[in-house]
Design a protein that fits this description.
There is one protein chain. By secondary structure, the protein is mainly alpha-helical. It has one domain. Helix 1 packs antiparallel against helix 6 and helix 3 runs antiparallel to helix 4. The two termini are 18 Å apart. It is found in: Cell membrane. Keywords: Cell membrane, Ion transport, Manganese, Membrane, Transmembrane, Transmembrane helix, Transport.
């Protein structure tokens, strides 16, 4: 049984990093604005909080759906993860000039929501597959917070070259986990 727990921890860790890749990527762009370290700290915590709330909502709804639909739920969850990963991969190649909201007040909430909305869908699929909720939420929150801080800090120092690659990496990981759930 400890091997199963370790396997789930590793899988959830990779998934958390993949979900946080969006926050890292967008953080690179926002970090290119001049931001004080205090603002970077607040942005990271806010994104981390949203990466806990959104998958929690998804997990709750996913548990309900899985109790109603049983076997179909795991395949649907895998397909959902794969779809999110593909969307991340495709959007990484569609690079239009984007205007960033200033990350304060409503702009901060919209930013945090935009980079965590995919974690709702991942939570939905995890709720259907019966994962360990506390572990998933903890890892998602920590990874999103850390990667947001990292993206913002690197964005202060560098240009946006890494943003595309982090999104491709994150999308690839989500696709892989989606296929793992489907074919299992």
């Amino acid at each position: 049984m400890p091997d199963a727990v370790l396997g789930e921890f590793i899988s959830l860790s990779f998934m958390a990093i993949a979900l946080g890749a969006d926050a890292f990527s967008v953080g690179l762009g926002i970090g290119m604005q001049w931001l004080r370290l205090k603002r970077i700290f607040v942005i990271g915590l806010t994104v981390g909080l949203f990466h806990v709330m959104m998958p929690f909502l998804g997990i709750v709804i996913g548990h309900y759906i899985s109790s109603q639909l049983e076997g179909f739920a795991i395949i649907a969850g895998g397909a959902l993860l794969f779809g999110i990963g593909m969307q991340m991969l495709l959007s990484s190649f569609n690079r239009e000039e984007q205007k960033w909201l200033h990350p304060t007040g409503t702009g901060l909430v919209l930013f945090a929501l935009s980079v965590s909305i995919d974690s709702f869908s991942v939570g939905l699929s995890l709720g259907m597959s019966g994962t360990k909720v506390f572990l998933a939420l903890l890892l998602f929150g920590l990874a999103a917070t850390g990667l947001t801080w990292l993206g913002l800090l690197i964005g202060r120092k560098a240009n946006g070259l890494l943003g595309v690659y982090s999104e491709i990496f994150g999308g690839s990981i989500l696709c892989a986990f989606g296929l793992k759930l489907i074919f299992g």
